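Q: For a teaching handout, I want to show students what a protein-ligand complex looks like in token form. Below are the inputs, and the small molecule is tryptophan. Please produce the holo structure.
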Amino acid sequence: MDKANDTVERVLTGITTTGTPHLGNYVGAIRPAIEASRDSNRESFFFLADYHGIIKCQDPALLRQSALEVAATWLALGLDPDRVVFYRQSDVPEIMELTWMLSCVCAKGLMNRSHAYKAAVADNEQAGADPDHAITMGLFSYPVLMAADILLFNARHVPVGRDQIQHIEMARDMAQRFNHIYGEHFVLPEAVIDDSVAVLAGLDGRKMSKSYNNTIPLFLPEKKLQKSINKINTNLLEPGEPKLTEDSAVFQIWQAFATAEQTDYMREQFAAGIAWGQAKKELFALVNEQLQEPRQRYQELLESGEEIERILLQGAEKARARAVPTMAVLRQALGIQSMARV
Ligand code: TRP
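A: Here is the structure, written as tokens, with tryptophan included.
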């Protein structure tokens, strides 16, 4: 079986294809992931989790558009598809097959404890509705699909946000259970949380997040990016009045894009009372300079979608070269095999 060996670290992460990527996604997830993928001691698997997408999004046009935008974003920002395995979950049907196998070893009680599911039940109870109202089996068993994503490729390290730690622990549970019944097939995955990456502030100063509606989309056209940056909340201090860097979203976003020297420079400007308008102007220039080229490439990729499609299909081929033999072994381990005597 295709176990990750000890010298090469196998890293895998999924990107749910809902919503347009924003600066917070870039700084907190995309940029560090692409940087890490350049390390030759690592083998990285990145995929568009479109079957996770349909749990929340039942608008086909929107789902398709999000998948396209997410793929274009990663490629435009320099993800090298020859170095990594970059694919679309739905192009690897073995993931769905493994999902069922795992469902049959996964205790229902484990899923009952899922934070996402419990939150949905709590919302229903609060609203005086039936506890199961609008809760699909997809939402309920979401962690099983995620476990299949990970275990199929025997990835040991799974970089995720804190909200996903429980899902990785559940994947470990399922792997252990499966190994116990059918023999040692799966590597036990671990969540990797990078505390050094910035959690970016949004327009209102809270964490930049789609659910707060305070995001700055990554590839806004230049003029719109400028407008959006101008909307970042500031206090009423006048030009010339010293400003605090600590609670300033403007400073915090600056820092996420700046070198150490540029950060020192802006800190001095704040102490010297830079006008908010001027600080935002400089912030726009800094961010725009870094996004200009990728934005251009992003637009080109979106135009036909053909190059993206070709890259994803190649990625799926690489992924399936691992997945198909793995599934053959697993099927046999379960006793799902040829009737003919050997
Ligand atoms: N559920 C993850 C999220 O919302 C995305 C995801 C799907 C994922 N499958 C995965 C992440 C496998 C890591 C590994 O962020």
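A: Two things your students might notice: The pocket of tryptophan is lined by residues 12-14, 16, 49, 52, 146, 149-150, 158, 160, 164 (CB under 6 Å). The two ends are 21 Å apart (CA to CA).
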